[in-house]
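User: Show me a protein chain along with its predicted structure.
Assistant: Here is one chain, sequence first, then C-alpha cells.
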Amino acid sequence: MHLTEKQRRVYRFIKEYIEANDMSPSFVEIQDYFGFKSLNAVYEHVDNLVKKGFIKKGLSNKKRSMALAEEKKNSVSIPLLGLVRAGEPIEACEAVEYVDVPEEMLARGENVALRVTGDSMIESNICDGDVVIIKRQSTAENGQIAVAIIDNKATIKQVYFHKDKIELRPRNPEMKSIFITGNGDFQIYGVLVGLFRKYR
C-alpha cells in the first residue's frame, strides 16, 4: 500500500530513530519534530502506518512500544539521472544507471533518483553522496524541497514563492539563497519524496 508524503516522512523518522536509539520515539517527540498542533495528528499517522503494515504497536500501553514491521522486499528500479547540486547549480546529467528503491519510498507518478553533491541542505539531513528520490512534477508548494532547473542546470533547495521573485533557500546557515526574477530561465523539475544513503 502506498504512503502519502507526510506518512512517508513520519515512517522515515520513526525508522531512523529506532535504528539510532534501539527504541521508538514517543508520540510527543514525533509531534515536536514535525510541529503537529496536537497529538491526535500523531495518533492518526501512526494508526495509518500500522494499518498499512509498516510499523506495529506493542500490546502494552508503554510510550515507546512501536516497532518496525518486517522490511518489505518489494523494490522498483528507477533511473539514476546523475548529479544534483546541493549548493550552486550544476548541469543535470542523462540517465547513467538504474537503482533499486523500496516501493514505499516512491510517490504515485514518475519517480527518478539523483545523487547529491555539496552540503547546502545538511540541516534537512541531505548530505553529499546521498541519493534523493524525486517525484517528477512542474509545481511545488511553498516551503517544499524541490529540484529546480536554472539555465539548464539543476539544484536542490527549499522553494519559497514571493510576490516578485522565487527564492531557492539552502538549509546551511553558511550559504545564501538563490533568487529568481521574472527574467530567469527557471522551472521546477520535481519534489523530494525520499532519500537513502549507504554507510561504508
